[in-house]
Amino acid sequence: MAVDRSGAPADAAVEAPGGTPGEALGRPLGAADGDVPEEALSAPIGMPTGAPPPRPLDAIDRDILRLLQTDGRASVRSVAERVHVSRANAYSRINRLIDDGVIRGFSARVNHERAGHGASAYITLKIVQNSWRTVREQLRALPGATHIALVSGDFDVLLLVHTPDNRTLRELVLTRLQSIPEVLSTRTLLVFEETDLNTDHRL
């Protein structure tokens, strides 16, 4: 009996579906909103609170992650062929990575400038002690906010935003951010150029 790279039978009796990894989440990439239940589109992805730590990754898992980081629309069949395992094995591994919270979702990398967001900035915030959770929820509601982090050092929070223009950015900082009671001060760092490193990250 032939075996694949993982040692599993290559001609397993039960074959996994040959769709994209995104379909394992119930969210086929590129489907119209009407094709997917609303709750599936809005459901959060990630490891639930209190879940056990993720299982250790082996070389095949890391190869799968690198492939999906490069092309989140790759089919399970394509992933299996490129990492030299059966489709059933690839499907099982992808589902395990999703269940363990290693894969949090599948999304498109956007050129924000071409999408009409010509002004980007990192904004540092100092906030009231022990107010992180409250502030985080308010920052998540900001239009154009794409990354929020609680950090150590001279400030408490780092926020990345993309807005259509400098006027909108100024309005966001002076009106929206500074009206949050728990925000003590802000500092805005304009982004002149950015490079997406997602496909270059080596796991």
UniProtKB/TrEMBL annotation:
Entry keyword Transcription regulation: yes
Keyword Transcription: yes
Pfam families given in the database record: AsnC_trans_reg (PF01037), HTH_24 (PF13412)
InterPro entries assigned to the protein according to its UniProt record, in alphabetical order: ArsR-like_HTH, AsnC-type_HTH_dom, Dimeric_a/b-barrel, Tscrpt_reg_AsnC-like, Tscrpt_reg_AsnC/Lrp_C, WH-like_DNA-bd_sf, WH_DNA-bd_sf
Gene Ontology process terms (BP): response to amino acid
GO molecular function terms attached to this record: sequence-specific DNA binding
Region feature Disordered, mapped onto this chain: 1-37
Keywords per UniProt: DNA-binding, Transcription, Transcription regulation
Domain HTH asnC-type: 57-118
Database matches in PROSITE patterns: HTH_ASNC_2
One cellular component term from this protein's GO annotations in UniProt: cytosol
Family annotation (PANTHER family): LEUCINE-RESPONSIVE REGULATORY PROTEIN (PTHR30154), TRANSCRIPTIONAL REGULATOR AZLB (PTHR30154:SF34)
Name of the molecule in the record: HTH asnC-type domain-containing protein
Origin species: Streptomyces gardneri
